[in-house]
Each structure stands twice: as C-alpha cells, then as structure tokens.
Amino acid sequence: MHSNLVMGSDTAELIFYLPTPPKLPENWQATHADAISQLIDLNGNHWRKIVTIMAKICCLDISVNHTTAWKTVREQLFFDAKHAVSTGAHRPSVPRLTCQIQIVTANIAPVTLSSGQWHIVCGKETQQRLGLNTHLGKAIDSNHKITRQQTCLLTPYLDYRQYSNALIELTKQTLSRVGSLTRAC
Q1: How far apart are CA 95 and CA 185, in angstroms?
Q2: Contact status, residue 38 vs residue 137, Cβ threshold 8 Å
C-alpha cells in the first residue's frame, strides 16, 4: 500500500489520491451513515469542498435534479454496496461510482497503479510523492490541467479555484467515453 490512510470501499471503481489527511473523530468509520457529516464538522470548509468535488465526479445522475443527486452522493460517498448486502443496509438512491480516498503522505518509489480501477491523482504534490511522470499522457483539456495516462488522471487539487465545475464535467466525460460511468452501484 502506498498511503497511510485509506477511506472507502476496497472494491472502489474510482480512487482519489490526496496529499493531506483530514482530522478524524475517535472511532470514525467511513461507512457509517453520518461519516461525511462528521468529517466536514471536524475539518470545515476545506474538506467539504473536497468531498463535494468527489461526489460530483462520482454522481451518475444527469437528471434535472442533479444538484440534489450529487448532494445525496456526497452524504453516502463511502457507501460500499458489498458491505451493505452483508449488513442489510440500503443501497444508495442515486446511481454513482464507488470511491475511495488514499492519502499519500510520503515520497514513494514510482508505483504502478492497477488498471482495474480509475485513479485520480490530485495535485502536483501527490503526483510527485507517487513518483509519477507528469510529462507522459495526453491532456484532456485545452489548458492542460488534466492529463490522462491509461486509467489514471493527473488532476489539480480538489479545490474549486483549481478544479472548476467545467473540469468536473470534463472528467466525467472522459470516464464515460471509456465506459466506466455506464454502471450504477
């Protein structure tokens, strides 16, 4: 494992890599119903923005009620359908990708990211810590803010000043073009 903290499903379809861990309450569990509320309450606006951008990327609902949909996804961000079956929990009411966050706190020799999932490596600091060659791949936007390397997207940090709604939509389009966003959980 190339991180100190992993939050979310072990079978995630989409893994976000970030450089800095949030503060977590004692006995916090990512799959708990109020996990995201606890995370935001303890860490404030910064982590609210991070999980909001993640939810917008993971949300597959393209209906008129899209704003309501991504908010629902945000509150259930780490919901694990396989875990839910074994515990009798309800499935999410909004189609979405399952996700995981891996916090990368130290430099690591170049890693190979599995091709079985999508990897979104957020920010230059995380990309450097993972030893990724940021000069490889193809830019998916005209400003070269997001680069695709197979099933890996090298992106700006998850902050609205760097990762706008237009880039969020472009990210979703990129994932859907290769078939990843066609399944609902």
Answers
A1: 6
A2: no
Give the pLDDT score at 183: 36
Number of neighbouring beta carbons within 10 Å of residue 1: 6
In this prediction, residue 121 has a pLDDT band, given cuts at 50, 70 and 90, of very high
CA separation for the pair 77, 86 (Å, rounded): 18
pTM: 0.87
What is the pLDDT confidence band of residue 181, given thresholds at 50, 70 and 90? very low
The tokens of 9 are what?
């499903």
pLDDT, mean of residues 7-17: 90
* Tokens, residue 21: 């861990």
E strands, 91-176, in order = 99-103, 118-122, 138-139, 147-149, 152-155
C-alpha dist (Å) from residue 89 to 11, 31, 68, 120, 153: 17, 10, 21, 28, 32
How far from 180 is each of 74, 85, 177, CA to CA, in Å? 19, 23, 8
